[in-house]
Amino acid sequence: MSTALRRIDLSANTSSPDHDGTRLFNPFYPLVESSYVAYAVLFLAGLVLAVGVVANMAVMCVVWNNYYMRSAWNYLLASVAFWDFLVLVVCLPVVVLNHLSNRRVLGDITCRMVPYMEVVSLGITSFTLCALGIDRFHAATSSPEPKARRVEHCRSVLLKMLLVWLAALLLSSPEIFLWQLSQAVSLLSRLLLHVLQGRMWWCFGCYFCLPVLFTVLCQMATRNVNSDSSSAQKKRSHDERSDSQKRQQHQAVERQLNCTLLALAVVYGVCALPEHVCNITLAYTHLTISEVTAAILALLHHFLLFLKCAVTPVLLLCLCKVGSG
């Protein structure tokens, strides 16, 4: 996510001169104390990249190759896996190389592309959590009788995905222009400060509070509806005992889907909250941090996002009723 802290880091990289001309700085030689940190960052990045790429590809392949998994629920999860895959493959190497070489790779292109793709990924995840919460609430308020699984029409699935994608792509578009605005700090410093603070609160509300609160409220409403329906089922006559096993299986599937949605929201919230807390604290406490500290915090925030991209598909595969929607 592009925030004030990352702008500090990017501005520092922009203003720092290239001491070696066109030659990249080698953080691994000579072998000093900072080299061990570079090796640790490289090892962690390789581990996150390998796990995330394999897991996200597995989720996409499972959904794509199974006819009975072609529902809006599963395609939304597959779209999250697709964007997480892109963020890991495109953004992670650029971020690590920028940090280790102390210079920007490909100039303004990566400074625009990386924040945009990261915020799009957060938007896809946020709006997908909201859509899945609506799906779970709709399933709880519909008929409690178990229904045969059906494959949704392609038009219905594409419409739901299109709404999520368009919202994420359009709302993330200011990230492309914020980098250009940050280049005019000397002329528009006060305007830039207000823009970044507004963007900070917008990201906190739209990409953190909205999906987390939406998921919690949908879970609470779903549990209340399920408790009311279960108490009503206990009052039914004994003639319906023959359908009890099917009903129990149906309820077990619904509980697992609710647990999957809640687990996704927890992982997302845990990985996104530290950056928001850090940015708000730095913006309103007037703390001064060095460029080295800002670079370390920015790298940590990047890695939290990459960790979310790698853990989410692993979680789906472990819970592995991806196709139960």
Automatic annotation (TrEMBL):
Keywords: Cell membrane, Cell projection, Disulfide bond, G-protein coupled receptor, Glycoprotein, Membrane, Receptor, Signal, Transducer, Transmembrane, Transmembrane helix, Ubl conjugation. GO terms for molecular function: G protein-coupled peptide receptor activity. The chain crosses the membrane at residues 36-63, 75-96, 116-137, 157-179, 199-218, 257-275, 295-319. SUPFAM superfamilies: Family A G protein-coupled receptor-like. GO terms for cellular component: cell projection; plasma membrane; receptor complex. InterPro entries: GPCR_Rhodpsn (IPR000276), GPCR_Rhodpsn_7TM (IPR017452), GPR37_orph (IPR003909). Its main location: membrane. It is found in: Cell membrane; Cell projection. The keyword Endoplasmic reticulum does not apply. GO terms for biological process: adenylate cyclase-inhibiting G protein-coupled receptor signaling pathway; positive regulation of MAPK cascade. Residues 55-316 form the G-protein coupled receptors family 1 profile domain. PROSITE patterns: G_PROTEIN_RECEP_F1_2. This is G protein-coupled receptor 37 like 1. It comes from Fundulus heteroclitus (Killifish). The lineage of its organism: Eukaryota, Metazoa, Chordata, Craniata, Vertebrata.
